[in-house]
Structure formats: C-alpha cells, structure tokens
Automatic annotation (TrEMBL), chains A, B:
Zinc as UniProt keyword: no
GO terms (BP aspect): isoleucine biosynthetic process; L-serine catabolic process; L-threonine catabolic process
Organism: Streptomyces resistomycificus
Location of the Tryptophan synthase beta chain-like PALP domain: 22-306
SUPFAM superfamilies: Tryptophan synthase beta subunit-like PLP-dependent enzymes (SSF53686)
Protein keywords: Lyase, Pyridoxal phosphate
UniProt name for this protein: Threonine dehydratase
One Pfam family linked to the record: PALP
Cofactor: pyridoxal 5'-phosphate
Alphabetical list of InterPro entries matching this protein: Ser/Thr_Dehydratase, TrpB-like_PALP, TrpB-like_PALP_sf
Coiled-coil features, chain-numbered ranges: none
GO molecular function, one term: threonine deaminase activity
Length: 326, 326
C-alpha cells in the first residue's frame, strides 16, 4: 500500500513504552450475540483498565516522550477519554496536565479527569471549540499540545490494538472500528493493511456526526456545522486533512448509523455480553444491525473502545425495556 | 505450610492445557471505587471470556484429560457457571456433556448451557439435589462425574488465577475470594500460601449460605438445611470434607456478608467500574463495605468471578436508584 504517516516498526516498539495494564486486552468470541446479528462476532475489549478506554495506549507514548524533556507541561482537548488517559499517564510521570473540554461533556468523564489530578478547563461550546482553546493555551504558554489523531503517538498507540488482532487465532474477516477523529481507525487500519491485508476495515460513525465519513467518501475534507449524537466520543465536525489522507489509504469502507441502532447495540452488549459500554463502543454492533446481509456468515471483530458513561443517562438509554419486563 | 491436595508444579503445567482465551485476564486498580471503600482496590476480572466466569480454567483441564480417553461422556451438577464452562470445553473436544441443575437456577445460565450443546437435566430442588442426581447418572451410566471443588482439576484450574496474581506489580496485601464449594478459594489460596505467603487470603460467603464458612470456623463440616441468597453461584449446603481440609490450610479468614451488602457491591461495580457482575462476584466489595476499618489503607484485590445474570433480575437488584436519579 501507499505509505501512511504511521510506521509498523515504531508501533511494535510502542508496546515496550505502554504500561502493560493497557496491553493484550481480552479478545473473545461472543456467541450469545450471534443469533441477533447473523454473523460470527468477536469482541476486542478495551474497557478493562484504569481509564476504561483504549486512549491510554496513545497517551502512554506521549507522556513517555515528555518525561524526558525539560518542559513537563502538556495540554489537550478531549471529549473525556483522551483527557482521562493523558491525566493518568501524566500523573505517573510527574507531568503538568491540562485538559480542555466542553461543559456539555459526559460528567463521569470530567469527574475522572479531575480525580486523576489534571487541570480541567471547560468551554461553553462543543469539542471543536475545546480544540481551539487547547491550541491557544499551548501557543500562549509555550507548552506541548496533544492533538488527538493528528499527533502520531495517538494513532500509533491505538495501532497496538491492531498488532494484538493480527496475532489472534482463528483469523477474522472484518474489523469494525468507531470513527471519531480517526486515531483508532488509522492506527488499527494501518496494521491491518500492513500485516493482514485480507481483513476488511470498516469505519463506523453516527449519522449525527458524519464529517469524517463524508470526507472519506468525497476524498476531501468536509466539515459540518453541528453534531447531534449521544456518541460523545466521536462527535467531531472538522476532520484533520493528514488524518483523512491516512484514512483513505487504510479504510475499505466508512458507514453511518442511526442513534436507535447505537442504543440497540448498547442494549445487546448489556443483555448478551454483560458489558456496559459508552455509545461509541456500540457503533460496530449498530453497523451489523443496520446491514445484516452484508455481514452474514462472516467473522466480524468489533472493538469495544470505551465504557465511560453517566449511569443515569445509560439507564435512560438502555434501561427501560428490561426494567418493565415482568 | 502443610500440604494441600493441590500441587504448584501441576498448576503451572495447567497453563499449557487451558485455552489462552481464559488466561492472563485483566488485573487493574480501580480508583473510582476507592473513595467509597477506603482502601486501594484492584480488580482481577474473570468475566471477559466466552463463558463469562473463571470456571473454564478448570473445565479445560477436565476436558483435556477426557479427550484422550475411550469414554467421552461426562456429567456435572452446576448452579450454571460450571455447566456452561464444561459444555464449552467439551464441545471443542467432541465430548458428550450432561449438566444437572436446579430448575430454579438462573435462566441465562441454563439458556447458555443448552446453547453450548450440552444435555441439560433439571431437578425439582436445589443445587445439593442436582449434585445427588449427577452422581446417580454417573454411577448408572458409568461415565465421568465432574464434582466441583472435589475434583482437583477444578481447584488447580482456578489456581492459575493465583499464578497471575503473584506475577503482578505492585504487590498487594489481601485477596478477597468468593466462597462457594471452595475450588476458587483453595486454588487461589494454595498459590498465595506457596508463592506469596504475606498476602492475606479472605474468603467471603453470603450469610444466607454459610455452610463452608461455619465449617471453616468450627474446623469440622457443618451443613445447613437451606440457603437464602441471591448469590446463586455460591449457594451450597453440604461442604466437602477434603475441600474443608484444604481451606483450613490456606484461608486466613472466612467472613459472611448480608444480601444488602452484595447488592450495594453490585451497584458500586456498575456505577464506578462499569461492570455488570453476578452477585457472587460482588462478595469481595460487600466484605469491604461491612468492615471498612479492617481494610483501611490496605491494597485489596477482589476477584470478579462471573457476570452471568438474568438482566431483569439484575435491574431489579441494582437498577432502581440510578433510574430515579434526576
């Protein structure tokens, strides 16, 4: 394939930098999901770690590099998972971490960012406004800006998931990847194309936050004015050109799913896999639900990428039906 | 220490027989739980695998041995998790698996036993009656009876969790282990006493199913006439003498907890760790909740041993409060 910005040798080396608590995560077939989905389904579970998402694979690389530098201050914008992960990785290395987030972000995520000891600044707008503010802080204070999906460490950290996938027996046909800024998709996609090119790489984004999918389809950056989705972790409006370039090289498809399918996916993961997940982590199941014929008879891996939810919102989304079951 | 029936070298060898999907499970500190518990808490997560409990570590050993024999039929009594695990391990090796269970067993567990292709026979009584019936089937048909906690494979399979715990950095002070028939407690306890004797081994059982705890305290087998607990996985009435002998050698304490504490533990694991667990898996958290002073300042590991619940019952137990939160 043409070259992405990512490097497979560097991704292998990243495994030696990342705290092992984030590596070699569970990967298992979940047959209880299969009657409802019509295909073989395996779960790659990225929630059973201190920050309950895959994001620390990337922040461990960022923090590992900064720990050797004179300037130990760092800032990022985050919908909540990157911020938690950077706060966790920074705390262990004595970094001064600032996270900028929307004041509308998931409360549980903001609470954990504070609990990990990071400075938290809230902006009165969405994630794109948080990105602008984080960049301004970095410029003013002359400190390191961690930009999710643009910074190669965030992509190559996520890409270590891909290494674990290709080591799996038996092999699989398709991997479904939540598409937000693109770090997870370009990371895992790069490894698949490099080491397991027969595997189909499908990115999944909410219809209510379709900017990067539209960009991928149009082969040029398309922005949107707003987002409307419960999948807070993937609700971006302004794709990054360099990330789109990589995504064009590694993604076989990018699909959009409805909110109702995301909720149905969350409920299936609860009912049949015993997993509480955040909306972004149910995008893969949602994609299967919306196009069963496409996946029929195939072995599909879905990356369950995070479980940071507000419990009351989670119950509103998925709780009603089982509670009224006699 | 005096010799238990278990053998550390055999436990190490067991790792080569058990399907890797059940090994090297996540172990991580869960700081969000700590303000509510007053101690450092790490989770050893045994639910992220095809059968959603630790039981397959043992059934893999049983099935591995049977696969080399002429007789390929096997029967066990089960509250549901052993049966699922034996069905899973047997299916892959062409074994003819029969599971005997109480008709009052958790529906989700019975459904999965059938789904894994095992024969399922229900008895109109509790788990002790299922044990009697399974033994009768084994005698009549001349087939292998797998008796949980008595058969050394069930203990040594569970003991592989202990090997993973002692390999952990940083080390910890106490391990909390759900106590049912005793396989998990004697298995993990054996490894702790052999390889990490400074770690305190505390077994936790429901007040409503206290037979083995009373036996441990009295140093002789004590039975009860009935059980009354939602923790179906540990609701035995007739401890096995040989298992009690081992437990007396490896347990530093055995404590009993109330149903309300088990439910509070389940809710804490949902709210602060994002984990859906079955009641037995919340016994460790329940023990901390009932005796915070004892654990204050210590680093406690709790083994989250299973997540097979009926979703409607689960919501009845833990769902009410978050749903009524504004």
């Amino acid at each position: 394939m043409q070259q992405t910005r990512l490097d497979t040798a560097r991704i292998r080396a990243a495994r030696r930098v990342i705290d092992p608590v984030f590596l070699d995560t569970p990967m298992y077939r979940c047959e209880a999901l299969e009657p409802g989905l019509g295909c073989t389904v395996s779960i790659k579970l990225e929630t059973a770690n201190p920050v309950r998402s895959f994001k620390a694979r990337g922040t461990e690389l960022v923090a590992g590099m900064l720990a050797g530098h004179a300037s130990r201050a760092v800032v990022c914008a985050s919908a909540g998972n990157l911020g938690q992960a950077l706060a966790w990785s920074g705390r262990g290395r004595g970094l001064d971490v600032t996270v900028v987030a929307s004041r509308f972000a998931t409360r549980a995520k903001l609470d954990r960012i504070r609990a990990w000891g990071a400075g938290l600044e809230l902006v009165d707008g969405d994630h794109e406004m948080a990105r602008e503010r984080a960049a301004a802080i970095a410029r003013c204070d002359g400190i390191r800006l961690v930009e999710d999906s643009l910074d190669i460490e965030t992509c190559e950290g996520a890409a270590t998931i891909g290494l674990e996938l290709v080591d799996t027996e038996p092999s699989f046909d398709t991997v479904l990847i939540a598409l937000g800024g693109g770090a997870l998709a370009t990371g895992v996609g790069h490894v698949m194309k490099a080491l397991a090119p027969a595997v189909e790489v499908i990115c999944v984004q909410p219809l209510g936050a379709p900017a990067l999918t539209h960009s991928w389809r149009g082969r040029r950056v398309v922005t949107t004015d707003s987002t409307d989705t419960i999948a807070d972790g993937v609700a971006g409006r302004r794709p990054i050109p360099a990330v789109l370039d990589d995504l064009l090289l590694v993604a076989d498809d990018a699909v959009l799913v409805q909110e109702a399918s995301i909720i149905a996916g969350m409920r299936m993961l609860l009912d049949h896999a015993g997993l509480v997940v955040e909306p972004s982590a149910a995008l893969g199941i949602a994609a299967i639900l919306e196009d069963r014929d496409r996946f029929a008879g195939r072995h599909v891996v879905t990356i369950v990428c995070g479980s940071n939810v507000d419990v009351d919102a989670y119950h509103r989304w998925v709780g009603a039906a089982p509670l009224h079951t006699p």
